[in-house]
Amino acid sequence: MSQYIINELKTKYHDKKIIPFIGAGLSIPFQLKSWSNLIQELKASFLNEAYWPMIDHDLELGEYQSAIENIKKYGGIDDQPIQEKIADCYSRRMVNTDEIVDNNYIDLIKENFRLYLTTNYDRLIEDHVSKINSFSSLTDYTSNIQRLFENQGEKYLFHIHGSVSNPDSIIISSEKYDELYSNEVFDNMMKAFSSSYSFLFLGFSFNDTFVKSLVKNHKKYFKGTHYLLVNAKELDAKQRGELSREYGLRIIEYDATKSSHTKEIRRVLAEITEEITDSDEKTTEQSKDLTYTAIGIDDLINSETHEQNLFYRKLEIANMGEKLCEISKYFYIAAEKFIRTSKKFGLPKEFIDGILAEVFMKYKEKYVEIYDIEGRTSKELLIKIHKNLENINIDRLVNNSNKPTTAESKGFIHVLADDEEKDVWWGSERL
């Protein structure tokens, strides 16, 4: 877990700029039915047995939305009976919050958490956060949005997909999702939240179909930096890269192997919400120095020859010429130093991976366009790549404190070319 990200979140928490975004994982300790078990009950309640294998197939693929749609279609029903069934299943209330159920809702009772969003239909968070103002939908709030930001003495919870307190508000069908996401009030609220705050996703798994849909549908709202707290074994490298690159999410991983999800989430939340120390401020100040990590003239003049590096040999076999090889070497030095400095200051691996992925895709695109289709030379390809990387769009991955310079951006392609596992070449020649 990157201390840089923790300190970043800690600062945002103390500035009251974090919104906990709560998923089904936080309700697991209360033994509510899983979506899979709920759909099995819906299948048995509303479908002829002849259609059960279709629903079982949907569940095997994790296609919960498809299963719901098929139950409606072949059961000849609308949303209402399913909404009421969901309300019956998820209506458990905590009559006494002293009941011994270890959970993370109690860890969210923090002074500087004032706004909460959840995709959960249950009302367990209301039972733990005293006197919270709860809404079954974002569209239920019709007052001035600014009031939410300025009313420091109140806490607000929004069930963005409905709540069991009003079964009719529960969103389950594709058409209802489309209707919700195209609603102007919903649109304005999400834009206001995501532009003014950072979301901290808790209790989510990116393997969940509903969560994938949520992130996809909200992509246009994610203008700031948002965070996903997740068990280290739940995401593979491809998923981490996608979350970082496509949605601008920073990943905070914990290891529940020898512990529990509840305990590990509690530990991270405690660290984020504790008082800022001098050490934290020093680390934060150090991270700001990333603005000034551009390569210096002495680094270039006194650099190694790099003639034995893989990236350099690839330039030579493509007959790039001495001058183009030399400037490419300088770009490589700049980019390589940027990556080392970023790692030193604890920036997440996903941050670098996201940038390199964007560079790699741009290279592949231009290779096909310039070398394969247009039949131009390796030199022309390299010059065009350098030109394109000057303005590569990585704004979703960086901010003003860690944005690479033009030279560093051009050098990333040579860092990739220096990796034997990356298929980066400047023509048909191979070593």
Mean pLDDT across the residues is 83
- What share of residues are in beta strands? 5-15%
How many structural domains? Answer: 3
CATH architecture label of the largest domain = 3-Layer(aba) Sandwich
Structure report:
This protein is an alpha/beta fold and 431 residues long. It has three domains: 3-32 and 92-276, Rossmann fold, CATH 3.40.50; 35-89, no CATH class; 286-417, no CATH class. It has 19 helices and seven strands. It has helices spanning 3-14, 35-46, 52-60, 64-75, 79-89, 124-128, 145-150, 174-181, 184-196, 209-218, 237-247, 261-273, 278-288, 297-301, 310-317, 322-344, 349-373, 378-389, 406-417; strands spanning 18-22, 115-118, 133-135, 156-159, 198-202, 226-231, 249-254. Strands 3-4-2-1-5-6-7 form a seven-stranded parallel beta sheet. The longest helix is centred in the last third of the chain and has 25 residues, at 349-373. Mean pLDDT is 83; it is low at 286-292.
Features:
single chain; 431 residues; Rossmann fold; 3 domains; 19 helices; globular
Structure in a nutshell:
With 431 residues, the chain is an alpha/beta fold.
